[in-house]
Amino acid sequence: MIFRVKSGYAKFRKPYTTTSALTFLCIHPPAIKGLIGAIVGIDRGDLYENTKDMRIGIQVLSPIHKDMQTIKLVSMKNENDLFSFPVNAEFLRNPEYRIFVSWRPEKLDELEDHLKYQKPVFTPYLGVSEHVAKIIFETRCESKRTQTRNNVDSIIPINCFDLDYSDFKIFTDNIPVSNNEKREYTKYEKIMFGFKNDRPCALKGNATGELHEVAGQNVFFFQ
């Protein structure tokens, strides 16, 4: 299944501290599982078990623009002595992604129904609740393993790809790709994706990881 998601802003916080100002450069698989859980109404406590067999591909459609904003956090350590303090925080401006989802057929049926008729159970958002997401259903189609090793349209782990020289911009980040039932990140991958003239472009090179052709695009799936 393929759908797009976008918002005016997004923040996928790097969990170095509880008040971290930094954001990952793009949405990551655990965040997408949470987004899909909100759409179909999966309780947080059941999210891990319900999505652990889900496979996800991600295409970054928007240029990477970051804004720094000052927000106020409230200390909750002492209820009798509450105080707020300012923190500078990064946000992604106008992010948009194309999401590829491989899941159990009955779960895809449910997800398709919610996406097509724009009826999420809970409000979907990108990272923080203030940044409500707009979801656009595209298509549901079969994927097949591809023999091509020349182009990759989605984000891909760096260690699965030998990049040929090109004149487009390459972005890299170390993102979480899996978590556990406690919502703790358990695995990270250093990934990359490309842009040319502020438009997403396929990476050209030699892919050593498994790719699938989905609606004419070569996609790497994370699980």
The average pLDDT is 91
Q: Which regions contain 5 or more consecutive residues with pLDDT less than 50?
A: none
Instruction: Output the radius of gyration.
Output: 18 Å
Morphology: globular
The ordered H/E elements are EEHHEEEEHEEEEEEEEEEE
- Number of DSSP E strands: 17
Total of DSSP H or I helical runs spanning 4+ residues: 3
The helicity comes to 10-25%
- Given helix and strand content, the structural type is mainly beta
Assembly context of the chains? single chain
Major sheet: order of its strands?
3-6-1-7
Termini Cα gap: 15 Å
Strand content: 35-45%
Main beta sheet: 4 strands, antiparallel
Describe this structure in words.
By secondary structure, this protein is mostly beta strands. The protein contains three helices and 17 strands. It has helices spanning about 30-40, 45-50, 105-115, and strands at about 1-5, 10, 55-60, 65-75, 85-95, 95-100, 135-140, 145, 150, 155, 160-165, 170-180, 185-195, 200, 205, 210-215, 215-220. It has a four-stranded antiparallel β-sheet, with helices on one face. Strands 10, 12, 13 and 14 form a four-stranded antiparallel β-sheet that branches. A three-stranded antiparallel β-sheet has the order 2-5-4, with no helix packed on it. Strand 13 (about 185-195) and strand 14 form a beta hairpin. The chain is globular and about 65 Å long. About 30% of the residues are buried.
